[in-house]
């Protein structure tokens, strides 16, 4: 059982889903608050100051996308979107607005709990400050020296490859949409040039992945973007 005691706000207008999440999360040691619309969600965030929000996009009144936008303008509260499978456009837009992850409906509680743990870990690491280096299995990145190594051997990356790897690692565990990565690495004028990203992801995988055909680090999120695996 999780003993974090983290505060979680569940926002969903489907009463059955909201109650099921509330029961399960409470049983795993979380303190749970609920809201069934966007207005109540924003008020609950201000009143309860949760550590994480589970957010359904299909809300009455203020939409889930608008809630996501308003929250991200004011805080770094981790946001996990609950999305129906056929709402890919809304999923991508929510991630571009600053959501950290999404869980497709219908979902299993084990997956929801795993995503919550990842988001809370990432939030804690961010609050603690940016680490000077990163290590995962055979991969080591020294950000101060811009040095990348695999099994102790230096890997030569182009400046763009390095910036792409750095952006993915700094947001590890989070889904990065193609638009987000293009804007961060190439600049805001390159938000639609997905072919650039596809080429550089392929090059980067060939240089750092033990098996580029079955990536361990840079995972493809179909129809959305990429996520750097936060698990060793």
Describe this structure in words.
The chain is α/β, with parallel strands linked by helices and 232 residues long. It has two domains: 7-128, Response regulator (Rossmann fold), CATH 3.40.50; 133-228, Winged helix-like DNA-binding domain superfamily/Winged helix DNA-binding domain (Arc Repressor Mutant, subunit A, Orthogonal Bundle), CATH 1.10.10. It is built from eight helices and twelve strands. The protein has helices at residues 15-27, 38-48, 64-74, 88-96, 109-128, 159-170, 178-185, 194-208; strands at 7-11, 31-35, 52-56, 79-84, 101-105, 133-136, 139-142, 147-150, 153-154, 175-177, 218-221, 225-228. The chain has a five-stranded parallel sheet, with helices on both faces. β4 (79-84), α4 (88-96) and β5 form a beta-alpha-beta unit. The model has no long low-confidence stretch (mean pLDDT 88).
């Amino acid at each position: 059982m999780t003993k974090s005691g983290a505060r979680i706000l569940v926002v969903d207008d489907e009463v059955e889903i909201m109650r099921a999440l509330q029961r399960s999360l409470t049983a795993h040691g979380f303190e749970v608050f609920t809201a069934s619309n966007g207005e109540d969600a924003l008020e609950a965030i201000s009143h309860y100051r949760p550590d994480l929000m589970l957010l359904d996009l299909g809300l009455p009144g203020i939409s889930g996308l608008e809630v996501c936008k308003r929250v991200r303008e004011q805080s770094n509260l981790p946001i996990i979107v609950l999305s129906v499978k056929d709402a890919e456009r809304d999923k991508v837009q929510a991630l571009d607005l600053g959501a950290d992850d999404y869980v497709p409906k219908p979902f299993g509680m084990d997956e929801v709990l795993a995503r919550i743990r990842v988001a809370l870990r990432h939030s804690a690491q961010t609050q603690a400050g940016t680490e000077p280096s990163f290590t995962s299995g055979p991969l080591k990145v020294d950000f101060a020296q811009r040095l990348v190594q695999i099994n102790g051997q230096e890997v030569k990356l182009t400046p763009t490859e390095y910036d792409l790897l750095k952006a993915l690692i700094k947001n590890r565990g989070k889904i990065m949409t193609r638009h987000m990565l293009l804007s961060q690495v190439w600049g805001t004028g390159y938000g639609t040039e997905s072919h650039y990203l596809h080429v550089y992801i392929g090059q980067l995988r060939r240089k750092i992945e033990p098996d580029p055909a079955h990536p361990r680090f840079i995972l493809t999120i179909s129809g959305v973007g990429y996520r750097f695996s936060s698990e060793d």
